[in-house]
Amino acid sequence: MDKIQIAFFFISGFFISRIVIKTEIPQRLVSFLLHKRHTSFPRIVLYLISLAAFLSFFVPNVITILTLLPLINIIITAYNETGREVKSIPTILALAIMYGANVGGMGSITATPANGILITFIGLNEISGAENLSFATWLLWGIPLVAGFIFLAWLLLYLFFRPTAERGSDYDITISFKSSNHHHFKLGVILTLLYFVTSFLFSLLIISYPDYQLSLLVFTGIYTVIFILFIFFYPLNSSDEKEIKEPLLKLKDCYSNLPIKGFIYVGISIIIAGLLYVFNLQEPFSNFINQLIPSGLSVYMLFLLLALLTSFSTELLSNTAVQLSLFLIVVPLSALLNFSAIEALIIVTLSSTCAFMSPIATGVNGLAFGGVKNVSFKLMLAVGFLMNIIGALYISFYIRFVVLKFL
Question: What does pTM read for this prediction?
Answer without folding.
Answer: 0.74
